[in-house]
Amino acid sequence: MELQQAIDFRDECDELYRVLSRLDEATLDQPTQFKAWTINDVVAHLHFWNVMADMSMTDEKRFLAVLADIIPAFARDGGHMKYTWDWLDGLRGSELVKRWHAYVQEMSARFAEADPKRRLKWAGPDMSVRSSITARQMETWAHGQEVYDTLGEDCRNSDRIKNIAVLGVNTFGWTFANRNEDPPGAAPYLRLSAPSGAVWEWNEPSGDSKIEGDAVEFCQVVTQTRSIGDTSLELTGPAASRWMEIAQCFAGPPEEPPAVGARRKL
User: Fold this and answer.
1) CA 260 – CA 4 distance, rounded (Å)
2) Please, which residues have CB within 8 angstroms of residue 256's CB and are 6 or more apart in sequence?
3) What integer is the mean pLDDT of 229-245?
4) Same domain, yes or no, for 36 and 113?
5) How many CA atoms lie within 13 Å of 102's alpha carbon, on the beta-carbon side?
6) How far is CA 53 from each of CA 64, 127, 207, rounded to the nearest angstrom?
7) 36, 58, 93, 176: which could join 183 in a potential S-S bond, CB 3.0 to 4.6 Å?
8) Is residue 213 within 8 Å of 250, Cβ to Cβ?
9) Residue 119 and residue 60 in contact, taking contact as beta carbons nearer than 8 Å
């Protein structure tokens, strides 16, 4: 049986490609609201780390060698984006979009047939095949938000974003530990409305500690593509409130969520 998360990753990329494939070169160089990255930067970043995730499964020795080369490069001027553009060696614009999308098809097919429990090396802790490809879907969806926002469009979401919501739920404790904070209580009860209208629930029901609302907005908050103040999520209790102030479902040092109004559809 094919790994569903690999199919969801491919479908997420296909949805973003539907938008990217119609953009001209000038629009692809348009800056977004994320660190002034251009849409080209977004595609370059997604493609590079897709290749790295794939390499971690198909050629671990080479992956570790490239990773060792990347880490010191991050500390130099331009950081990882300069390294990424050097690696791309002139590939950009519509040709980069096509290469990114073609590689997604190849990569997703390999992950779909892999053992979902197999452990893979990564820049952070080792991950399972299932977690690795889920993280790639999350990155695609999250960075896709800046593309959609810049173009003044809405993403056509589906219930495959449940994978991203699960990542958000599973990183409750890590979000606090990453900041050397103790959570002000147990993980709150979540009741979220899926794009299909289904209701998704996590944790023990509680009237004193809960988050209720739209699953898309929850995913936007945990991926730091929206401030909690720009959503209609209803928060009850200190654990819910503090979590949504600092939520971070992606690896790396603590990042500050966007300020109210800083990330929005233009």
Assistant:
1) 35
2) none
3) 98
4) yes
5) 6
6) 11, 10, 41
7) 176
8) no
9) no
> Around Cβ 182, how many Cβ atoms within 10 Å?
8
Dihedral sign for Cα 45, 46, 48, 49, please.
Answer: positive
Using CB atoms within 10 Å of the CB of residue 178, give its burial: 0 to 12 exposed, 13 to 18 middle, 19+ buried: middle
Asked if residue 119 and residue 210 are part of one domain, the reply reads: no
Contact in structure between 40 and 20 (CB atoms under 8 Å): no
What pLDDT is stored for residue 89 in this prediction? 96
Structure tokens at 37: 């990255």
What's the CATH number where 51 sits?
Answer: 1.20.120.450
Its pTM stands at: 0.96
Cβ(167)–Cβ(222) below 8 Å: yes
Count of positions (residues) in the chain: 266
**Model confidence over 42-59: pLDDT tens digits?**
999 999 999 999 999 999
Please indicate, yes or no, if residue 42 is contained in any of the structural domains: yes
